[in-house]
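Support request from a user on the community tier.

User writes: "When I paste my structure tokens into the form, the page sometimes reloads and wipes my input. The last time it worked, I copied everything first. Here is what I submitted, just in case something in the input itself triggers the reload:"
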């Protein structure tokens, strides 16, 4: 049974025959997927379908996500008929309160920073790097500061400072001389490392977004990230605890184990920093993964998400994907039970 399916071949389109979805490219059927058991369909790049297939996906309640070739979220065919009205009422009430929103943001940022410092400390010991150990110590001190912060702008400032410390030391985590990192950049990423980081962060945000909708929360109202048209602020909040230990570790593993190479990427010059529209950015992005490494990346990501980890709240081992769902569920419970605070998942070294 396939629960999540990625379709990445440019120019493909979906065709339905009975209870089977067929991926067609030109005159060739490249894949046949039984619809039974399929919960999520991710279409990357220029993949098309007929209204007939779209209607079938809706009836089968298959969540369908549309992404750019570089992995940036574009749109979602959402099946939203969740009846948990009281949960959303609690979300609007609690996160609409500035004090509660700040307290929630403080816990989210503290969890993010703690996972970053644990990751750097683990690698610092493994690589015998004083620079990584010192950076971990700085992050640990910021973690203590943010736990006692009550103003949203101050909390956001601490998050920014922690990100600067973390990414300033990110080059020490790369043990492959074919790759370099001169700082975090996005929209568009300017080098292969940043391109892969942006890609994996998008995949993880989509995981969180799916869990949010499954639990019945409103993905557009968070606490750390401000409300902005079209931005799923709650998903952007709750993905923070997974960035370093899932996203960054995956990218670094591919680089350091030499599973990706510079010639797996397309480079364009001169580099543009301003674009007329979305199509212009697609055609002019400085770097992008070639289709083959894109498939390798997604395969590694899916393998990671299906690994198991012990989850103390329910005292059993669960997959990373199920962990994300359980954490979102706990976040919802914290909104309905104000005396129970949300606790981000802290990764053990």
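"...and here is what came back when it finally went through:"
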């Amino acid at each position: 049974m396939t629960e999540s399916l990625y379709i990445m071949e440019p120019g493909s389109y979906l065709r339905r025959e009975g209870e089977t979805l067929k991926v067609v490219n030109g005159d060739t059927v490249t894949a046949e997927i039984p619809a039974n058991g399929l919960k999520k369909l991710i279409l990357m790049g220029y993949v098309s379908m007929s209204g007939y297939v779209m209607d079938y996906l809706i009836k089968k309640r298959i969540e369908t996500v549309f992404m750019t070739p570089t992995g940036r979220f574009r749109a979602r065919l959402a099946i939203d008929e969740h009846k948990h009205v009281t949960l959303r009422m609690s979300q609007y009430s609690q996160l609409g309160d500035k004090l509660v929103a700040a307290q929630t943001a403080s816990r989210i940022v503290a969890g993010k920073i703690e996972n970053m410092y644990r990751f750097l400390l683990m690698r610092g010991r493994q690589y015998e790097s004083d620079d990584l150990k010192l950076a971990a110590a700085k992050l640990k001190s910021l973690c203590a500061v943010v736990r006692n912060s009550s103003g949203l702008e101050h909390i956001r400032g601490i998050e920014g400072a922690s990100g600067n410390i973390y990414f300033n030391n990110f080059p020490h985590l790369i043990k492959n001389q074919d790759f370099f990192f001169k700082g975090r950049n996005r929209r568009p990423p300017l080098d292969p490392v940043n391109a892969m980081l942006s890609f994996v962060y998008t995949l993880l945000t989509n995981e969180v977004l799916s869990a949010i909708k499954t639990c019945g929360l409103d993905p557009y109202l968070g606490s750390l990230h401000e409300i902005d048209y079209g931005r799923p602020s709650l998903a952007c909040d709750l993905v923070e605890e997974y960035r370093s230990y899932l996203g960054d570790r995956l990218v670094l593993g591919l680089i350091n184990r030499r599973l990706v190479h510079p010639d797996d990427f397309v480079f364009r010059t001169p580099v543009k920093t301003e674009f007329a529209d979305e199509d212009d950015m697609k055609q002019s992005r400085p770097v992008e993964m070639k289709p083959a490494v894109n498939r390798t990346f997604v395969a590694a990501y899916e393998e990671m998400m299906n690994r198991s980890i012990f989850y103390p709240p329910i005292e059993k081992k669960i997959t990373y994907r199920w962990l994300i769902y359980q954490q979102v569920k706990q976040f919802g419970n914290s909104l309905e039970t104000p005396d129970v605070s949300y606790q981000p998942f802290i990764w053990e070294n």
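Agent notes: The reload is a front-end session timeout and is unrelated to the input. The chain has a mean pLDDT of 87. The CA atoms of residues 188 and 285 lie 6 Å apart. Escalated to web team.
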